[in-house]
Specification:
α1 runs parallel beside α6 and α4 crosses α5. This protein is an all-alpha fold and 115 residues long. The radius of gyration is 15 Å and the shape is globular. The relative contact order is 0.15. It contains 6 helices and no strands.
Amino acid sequence: MGIYIAVIFYLAFIVLMVVSAWKINTKANQPGWACLIPIYGSIVTLKIVGKPWWWFLLFLFPVVNIVFLVWAINLLSKSYGKSEGFTVGMIFLPFIFYPILGFGDATYQGPAGLK
């Protein structure tokens, strides 16, 4: 019985994160379905934050990927007018902060907030 509850919570988490990513993409006038395709979704996110597609290649190298992923998350939060504190929340509590970004009143400010 316990395993079924765990599976339901896991599926609910996945659905919440996918729908949040979909809303984040559509707020930036990008295709929402892009979040469903792994590599393309990352490239679209890089486009939202104003970085070139080849940054995706940097995500393939150990240690370097952590630095650039945190940098990209920071740029994503700034693209929606949020601060570095919000970035910390997106890193450590994504199941709370990504839905806030997707469903909240945050509007796309341009790449890294430079409109």
